[in-house]
Amino acid sequence: MGSPSKTRRMKPLGIQLYECARGSPISFRSCQALVLILTFLSYASYHATRKTTSIVKSVLDPKTENLGMLHWPSHLYLQDLRDAQGNMTALYSGWAPFNADDGTALLGEIDLAFLGVYAIGMFFAGHLGDRVDLRILLTIGMIGTGFFTAAFGAGNWLNIHNFYYFLGVQMMAGLFQSSGWPSVVAVVGNWFGKSKRGLIMGIWNAHTSVGNISGSLIAAAMLKFGWSWSFAVPGVMIAVVGLAVFLFLPVGPEMIGIEEDIHEKDAEKDDMSAPLLEERSASKEKAVGFIQAWRIPGVAPFALCLFFCKLVAYTFLYWLPFYISHTAIGGVYLSDTAAGVLSTLFDVGGVVGGILAGHISDRLDARALTAASFTFSAIPALFFYRIYGSFSLYSNIALMFVTGMLVNGPYALITTAVSADLGTHSSLNGNSRALATVTAIIDGTGSIGAAVGPLLTGYISAKSWSGVFTMLMASAFVAGLLLSRLVMAEISAKMESRRPDAAASDLPVSSMEQS
């Protein structure tokens, strides 16, 4: 542990003021609660700013007679299409250049620009995160994200119709957003141990869905004042939360001088208080290199699996409100605001899926088996949502909830508990400076898929939404296959552990612990 003066310099200003007012140091439990709350709000605000684009899409690119109305199979939609054409009278004028014939494709390119830069920036942010103060990195990312999110909406106020303005703004927003995920996972990993990590992080990871839901509701509510406010309000919100992060977020126990408390808690075998890595020696540790992190057993298959998981999840994130508003549900087309509100049920299912996947993986001690089971189960859910989701509002709600649960379950598990597990893998020999790098590799690879999915959707949906759902089902299938080797290893390890001659052994069950 560093000297008192050095610790004081590293301690956030807000905590220093709190301790001065209280007259005593902040407790370990208080720091854990503060970390969970601030990182939760931080990443929820990140997702709230991302979700605005999907809500505003239907305003920027007005409805057309044919887009997105093709049902599967074809004999079900021909008569509905003829009947619905008479009702498509209230069309929006849109916003140039997105109201042109290629508007849907342009919106897909905007998504690609954002997510492409986000994915590339993720690798650099993770590498940087293991070397700089995560609190500063996270603060800069949040304030920068807020500025460029509001700048996109300012295009309405400034009457800007240049496509490259919106493209450039989204690219900068993606760059600043890339600092978020490696930072929050590394900070939480510094404060919480491995026991029940899947359940804890599954609950904590609800920030993704909470952010999506709040972003959808805020953006939809602001539409009546003009679509620019749908960007400006979330932009201001994330900047305010970023300021709170700067003032109060304790990155690690050693930075606020309570490392001794941790070892006392650890000696009491309190799993919630045990540090992620024991017996740290910051002076001897060196940050893990990019190539070395890729070689950690389990990183590559989970990273590639997340590529396809996020392809599916982010296609829903960016296109679900657009799909709902362009598809007759029970013979009725919903307004943009109603479609945005209805789409939040996908994220509600995602909250349940993330918690359920984390809890199951803890009980089974089998991350790969849990993730693969969810991805394979998502295939029939996607099929049924496409076929029967348009029959009635109730069928749409039920199927959307189940689909969100099965799609977001493995996504949440891999980006949280799995990343933390691999970032503290036994092959690192206790080195704690790998969390941000490993997290960035896994989520960065996944973010490439997140960029590809919405881009392809922009082109495929112009011809048929059935093609989009075929792509999503194929992606879920490949995601499950990529984990097959780890699944077999976990099953084999479990069978081995149940043998009488292995009952007394301490062999790990999880395939990620095997070298």
TrEMBL record:
It comes from the Eukaryota. Keywords: Membrane, Sugar transport, Transmembrane, Transmembrane helix, Transport. One of its GO terms (cellular component) is membrane. It holds the Pfam family MFS_1. The chain crosses the membrane at residues 26-46, 105-124, 136-158, 164-192, 204-223, 229-249, 299-320, 332-356, 368-387, 393-414, 434-456, 468-488. It is a multi-pass membrane protein. GO terms for molecular function: transmembrane transporter activity. It is found in: Membrane. Residues 37-492 form the Major facilitator superfamily (MFS) profile domain. InterPro entries: MFS, MFS_dom, MFS_trans_sf, Sugar_P_transporter. The keyword Zinc-finger does not apply. The keyword Transmembrane helix applies. One of its GO terms (biological process) is phosphate ion homeostasis. Belongs to the major facilitator superfamily. Organophosphate:Pi antiporter (OPA) (TC 2.A.1.4) family. PANTHER family: GLYCEROL-3-PHOSPHATE TRANSPORTER 1-RELATED, MAJOR FACILITATOR SUPERFAMILY TRANSPORTER 16, ISOFORM B. This is Major facilitator superfamily (MFS) profile domain-containing protein. It comes from Oryza rufipogon (Brownbeard rice).
